[in-house]
Automatic annotation (TrEMBL):
InterPro entries listed in its UniProt record: DnaJ (IPR012724), DnaJ_C (IPR002939), DnaJ_domain (IPR001623), DnaJ_domain_CS (IPR018253), DNJA1/2-like (IPR044713), HSP40/DnaJ_pept-bd (IPR008971), HSP_DnaJ_Cys-rich_dom (IPR001305), HSP_DnaJ_Cys-rich_dom_sf (IPR036410)
UniProt GO molecular function: ATP binding; Hsp70 protein binding; unfolded protein binding; zinc ion binding
Keyword terms, alphabetized: Metal-binding, Repeat, Zinc, Zinc-finger
Organism lineage: Eukaryota, Metazoa, Ecdysozoa, Arthropoda, Chelicerata
Classification via Pfam families: DnaJ, DnaJ_C, DnaJ_CXXCXGXG
Record has Transmembrane helix as a keyword: no
Domain CR-type: 121-209
Entry's Gene Ontology BP terms: protein folding; response to heat
Organism: Sarcoptes scabiei (Itch mite)
Domain J as annotated: residue spans: 6-68
HAMAP family assigned: DnaJ
CR-type Zn finger ranges: 121-209
Gene3D superfamilies in the record: DnaJ domain, Heat shock protein DnaJ, cysteine-rich domain, Urease metallochaperone UreE, N-terminal domain
Record-linked PANTHER family: DNAJ-LIKE-2, ISOFORM A-RELATED
Protein name: DnaJ -like protein subfamily A member 1
Length: 406
């Protein structure tokens, strides 16, 4: 008795169909819904391939008939890609269809750079460790070119070892566990000890270091990737992947990059400069000196923000175009003032507003300097004392007596 028929329905066959019926159905549907012919039916093509793979495998089909798709998933059955199933059915060589051999994994390295390097451009050297094809054996892994590697008998050249186990508590459910073959380390080949290359000991590759010259262009940003194509680990069975260098900008003590092209700085001025004007210099990231001045009669408020056009970061790939240098001012007020100067200041500055003290409910109070850390510590101590009091009160309560809570 078949538990569910979704896979059979998808292929348009009955649960008692033969292998020939499945092949005919798959051929027709796979050609109709292949992504190259029908790009919008990718999910349907995937489902058709999965149904065909399960139903043409005797063990998988038996498991599906007993427990449906859930049993297949719980059984840990290995699934091939839809393209691999298609290629295998029609006898295609997938590597040729993809126009080239398999490519190896990319390697990623971080490179810490300064803001000056991103502003001015720079060239850095980066040492990376990678695998390189053994020069002695030219990647064969053997002592002589007359000796060839043998197919691993344990995995039969697949590089993977598959074992079947029954799931505990489910007598009729099995699972396939796939792992890398320990005999050949996943290569699918075995070279006898006496025939192995002495330099690479049969591994075909050796570990070596390479110095890369990393060119940092003006205007590059934090996190930008620089790619060295085909410079990753080498292996005779595939093309090398890429080495990707990721720039990591360290903080600057003066400037902050607030966008790809804008810089900002904080500038302190005293009260005299805020009220009466000032001149200040700024040392740029390319070692120039800028002179800035406030306008005559202009008062610079605490937190005021100004900017200088064209003194920000250079634009990537267009370094002669630069962004803004944003300046935020913070007025440094004096801690106290000479009492003798107060009358003079009151004469020079705008008059103070007059407070009405004739009201009967006016009460004069004293102000104190507020310390956030001390206040938080005091609050913390108070909370601990309160909790200790609560615990002590609970210990003295009589059984069945409820206390009042606040």
């Amino acid at each position: 008795m078949v538990k569910e028929t979704a896979y059979y329905d998808l292929l348009g066959v009955s649960p008692n169909c033969t292998q020939d019926d499945l092949k005919k159905a798959y051929r027709k549907l796979a050609l109709k819904y292949h992504p190259d012919k029908n790009p919008n039916e990718g999910e349907r093509f995937k489902a058709i391939s999965q149904a065909y793979e399960v139903l043409t495998n005797e063990e998988k089909r038996r498991l599906y008939d007993m427990g449906g798709e859930k049993a297949i998933k719980e059984g840990g059955m290995h699934s091939s890609s839809p393209m691999d199933i298609f290629d295998m059915f029609f006898g295609m060589n997938r590597s040729k269809r993809e126009h080239g051999p398999k490519k190896g994994r990319d390697m990623t390295f971080s490179l810490v750079v300064s803001l000056e390097e991103l502003y001015n451009g720079s060239t850095r050297k980066l040492k990376v460790n990678r695998k390189e094809i053994c020069e002695d054996c030219k990647g064969s892994g053997t002592k002589s070119s007359n000796i060839s590697a043998e197919t691993c008998s344990n995995c039969r050249g697949t590089g993977m070892y598959v074992r079947v186990e029954r799931i505990r508590g489910h007598a009729n459910v099995i699972q396939q566990i796939q792992s890398v073959c320990t005999d050949c380390s996943g290569t699918g080949e075995m070279i006898p000890q006496k025939d192995r290359c002495k330099k690479c000991t049969g591994n075909k590759t050796v570990k070596n270091s390479k110095i890369l010259e990393v060119h940092i262009d003006k205007g590059m940003i934090d996190g930008q990737k620089i790619c060295f194509s085909g410079q990753a680990d080498q292996d005779p069975s595939y093309e090398p992947g890429d080495i990707i260098v990721v720039l990591e900008q360290k903080d600057h003590e003066v400037f902050k990059r607030v966008s790809p092209i804008n810089l900002s700085i904080n500038m302190k001025i005293n009260l005299t400069e805020a009220l009466c004007g000032f001149q200040k210099t700024i040392k740029t990231l390319d070692d120039r000196t800028l002179l800035i001045s406030s306008n005559r009669g202009e008062v610079i408020k605490n937190g005021a923000i100004k900017y200088i056009q064209g003194e920000g970061m250079p634009t990537y790939k267009n370094p002669f175009e630069k962004g803004k240098l944003i300046i935020q001012f913070f007025v440094d007020f004096p801690e106290s003032i000479d009492l003798n100067l107060i009358p003079k200041l009151e004469h020079l500055l705008p008059p103070k507003p007059i407070v009405d003290l004739s009201m009967s409910d006016v009460e004069e109070v004293a102000m104190h300097t507020y310390n956030v850390d001390e206040d938080e510590q005091s609050h913390h101590n108070h909370r601990n004392n309160f909790e200790a009091y609560e615990e002590d009160s609970d210990m003295h309560h009589s059984p069945g007596v409820q206390c009042a809570t606040h």
